Amino acid sequence: MSKRSLSPEMNESSNLVGKSLFVVDKISCSSSRTNVAKYQALIRSFGAVDADSVDDADLVLVDTCAFNKFQEDLSLKIIQQNQKRIRTNATIIVCGCLAAINPKRLEEQYGGKFFSPKNESHLRDFLGLKKLENETMAYSAQGRHMGVSLQTQRPVFSVILRVVRALHRLDTITPLGRLPLIGQILASSQAANPNAYAITISQGCLGNCSFCVIPMAKGKTVSAPVGEIVEKVREIVGQGTKKIILTSEDVGAYGKDNHSSLVDLLNRIIEIPGDYSLYLQHFDPRWLGAMKEELRAIMASGRIAYIQFPIQSGSPTVLARMRRAYDIEKVVPVIDELRREFSRVTFSTQIIVGFPGETNDDYVLTKTLMSKRLFDWVQVFEFSDRPGAATNAMSEHVGTTAVANRASALRRHWFLQRYFNFRALASAFLIRAS
């Protein structure tokens, strides 16, 4: 949201004065949810007030996700559920990545107003805010408190999320971060923590992954100014916030467009006095080689509590087909080195199982990588084709049953290796308790 203030005349002439707004953003990523916070603040600035529920709202803003088929299906289900609940004269506006990734399906199954992150000006048109200047929607250091109860169709995940939220509430009373397993769960789930604050430091990506369509939705990396982010962190630390998430489609690409870098940004942030920790989401391993020494110095400050390196696969062959811009044999030693030196930091990763052409040998390589216990937390995703992705044209797609079986087996394998290995658990306890 731009710092430019809106004049009383604009507010008085707005057709939003007295209207009620309800936001539905339970399934999207931290980055998308900070975008929604910007839209919400904008609508409020023109006189709208928050509604208590969908049933009471004049305007309903629904955020969506479509990075895989599961999230796309869930987004459409949520849109349709809200369509059935809204009042006769109420308006639904859909935003988020689904609007860019699969607009055809959105039109067929929803048919209403929608806009993507790359055409935010459409929101202005939908709301009749003709006097609103483009600079008001210009990209900036967006942020918001987290804690939205993420929605899922899988009962076991619903139970896990309820437990996680309870742990975050308990953590405000008694520190749980020193406990093995609990500490890693808390660090890896800050998006569900109402006391955590997320800042989207950049939007978009410089990658060209064959499976990913997020660049279709958000374009190339656009970074917020360093000074603006630093001041935002200073502000929220001054308000007592202790958990700060720095997020993007790729935080490692921060500054590639404005002659800065993630290292420059972090060095500025860690100078801010206060009791707080930083959580880095989505750090593409491609940047690790160039940043290793500078990142080590930053981690030595003790400010970094969590860092996610989305490895995606342990197979060089699969990574080449994915068009991931790193050599797994060079990346793993760097992560291992950092993990050994900074054992109190929670390391996380993401894995895609069942990528086209993935053989059982490829899968075993990923399983072997998980056995190395490089990561305290692993998100395993089942591959699904996305509209417009290069994988659409690939042969040797793995059957859905085989993909599901591999994903389930990998989750079990990693969890048993990491948390039911007595030596590893004892070591983690000693580290966390020290």
Mind telling me the C-alpha Rg? 22 Å
With strands numbered from the N-terminus, the spatial order across the biggest sheet is: 6-7-10-11-12-13-14
Strand content: 5-15%
**Which word captures the global form?**
globular
Total helices: the number is 17
Note poorly predicted spans. 1-12
Amino-to-carboxy terminus distance:
42 Å
Helical content (DSSP H or I, runs of 4+): 40-55%
Account of the protein in words:
The protein has 434 residues and is an alpha/beta fold. Helix content is 42%, strand content 14%. The protein has helices at residues 8-13, 30-45, 69-85, 98-101, 103-109, 121-127, 155-171, 182-188, 214-218, 226-238, 262-269, 288-299, 316-322, 328-341, 360-371, 400-419, 422-433, and strands at residues 20-24, 49-50, 59-64, 91-96, 113-114, 142-145, 196-200, 202-203, 222-223, 243-247, 277-280, 304-308, 346-353, 377-382. The strands form three sheets. A seven-stranded mixed β-sheet has the order 6-7-10-11-12-13-14, sandwiched between helices. Strands 2-1-3-4-5 form a five-stranded parallel β-sheet, with helices on both faces. A two-stranded antiparallel sheet has the order 8-9. α12 links the parallel β11 (277-280) and β12. α10 packs parallel to α11 (262-269). Residues 1-12 have low confidence and may be disordered.
